[in-house]
Amino acid sequence: MLQIRLASRPDGRPTPQNFDLDRGPLPQPGDGEMLVRVIWLSLDPYMRGRMSAAKSYADPVEIGDVMEGAAVGEVVTSKNPDFAEGDVVTGRFGWVSHAISDGTQVQKLDPAQAPVSTALGVLGMPGMTAWTGLNRIIGIKKGETVLISAATGAVGAVAGQIAKAQGCRVIGVAGGPEKCAYAEQELGYDVCLDHKAAQDGETLAKQIAEAAPDGIDGYFENVGGKTLMGVLPNMAVHGRIAICGMISWYNGANMDQTMPLPKAWSTILTNRLKVEGFLVPDHWQHYPEFVSEAAPMVQDGRIKYREDVTEGLENAPEAFIDMLEGGNFGKKLIRVGAD
Ligand code: NDP
User: Taxonomically, which superkingdom (predicted)?
Assistant: First the structure.
């Protein structure tokens, strides 16, 4: 089996040397356990936080430990009465080709209902994050203008389509013309602005003002940096901001792309904005509600999704580093084993 461990903590941008590839014999399940062969590993931006020792909402991965992550796999051998050989399951198996599990926090998937990889993307944690940010944090209403950054990513693409389906005018911000064309033509964004083409936050602010002359009622914040600088002055009075992530700063880069705190603070006051950070695990009890709304929309094509697949677990470190800088186009997945 192959496992990828954290070898050292990154200083800024992670490098392949921060990861160790560790090959060993296949483990055998004990009583009450099962052996899972991993098919799909999800790569998510939060993993950058787990590589760092800095205080956060979750404990870091210790040096020498296997990298954390959600995955989908197939039960190969089971000594657990709740799971049978051939079951397709999802759980937090980590960056591994095979995992031993006692079934804790493992869910069975029905491959007839949706492609099983969607449990890691559009119908999994990222989709749930999009739904939560829009409905439970921003509280979008029909007719409002909503802006979504990282508009074509795992979270952003679902957020854009849900907001559109709920009757909002939806503006996306994404990196590059290809992603923007996809946002407008496939995902149904009314407009998508290319943050890479805008030299700074002020340029982006002017573009956003043109795209939303009456202001932004809801901002789904995924990136921070230049995009936040462009959005904040354009927030409508009584606008709401859901702080979901700030990926442009995760590697410690782009720290000059920021608005002075006094200016940001006074904008929040004068425009009477509501700004709320959220972590999707706190809202997980609403997952059934999300999935009952989103699954039919995925099935009938009202919510489209795109996956960006890298073959082979050994390539996960490079793929992860690339994703943190926008190299992915859609939900980032590693195909660890055959379907
Ligand atoms: P994505 O699939 O959106 O991939 C990351 C994207 O971030 C890249 O494709 C890129 O898109 C964008 N990006 C990277 N660097 C920059 C930059 N310097 N400036 C602007 N954009 C950048 O990832 P996810 O959908 O999985 O995650 C999106 C955000 O949601 C992240 O911030 C993540 O941490 C957060 N999140 C938060 C959760 C919570 O519970 N609060 C749960 C899940 C995710 P582009 O090329 O378009 O710029």
Answer: Bacteria
166 is written with which tokens?
A: 């709920």
Q: Output the CA torsion 183→186→191→196 (10° steps).
A: 20
What pLDDT, in 10s, does the model give residues 25-45? 999 999 999 999 999 999 999
Q: Which of 222, 229, 287, 306 to mutate to test the pocket of ligand 1 (most atoms within 8 A of CB)?
A: 222
Ligand 1 pocket, 279 CB below 6 A? yes
Same domain, 86 and 231: no
Residue whose CA lies nearest to ligand 1 atom number 47: 174
Query: How many domains does one find in the chain?
Result: 2
Q: Is residue 244 lining ligand 1, measured as CB closer than 6 Å? A: yes
pLDDT digits (tens, 9 = 90+) for 157-202: 999 999 999 999 999 999 999 999 999 999 999 999 999 999 999 9
Domain boundary pick from 266, 281, 296: 281
Gap from CA of 296 to ligand 1 centroid (Å): 25
Domain membership flag for residue 291: no
Pocket test for ligand 1, best of 223, 229, 276, 286 (most atoms within 8 A of CB): 223
User: What is the whole-number distance in angstroms between the Cα of residue 250 and the centre of ligand 1?
Assistant: 10
Residue with tokens 């000059």: 256
Q: Answer whether residue 55 shows pLDDT above 90.
A: no
Which helix (H) or strand (E) segment holds residue 216: the answer is: strand 216-221
Same domain? For 272 and 312 the reply is no
Those residues whose C-beta lies under 8 Å from the C-beta of residue 81, and which sit 6 or more positions away, are none
Beta carbons within 8 Å of 281's beta carbon, 6+ residues apart: none
What digits encode the pLDDT tens for the residues 267-291?
A: 999 999 999 999 999 999 999 999 9
pTM of the predicted model as reported, rounded to 2 decimal places? 0.98
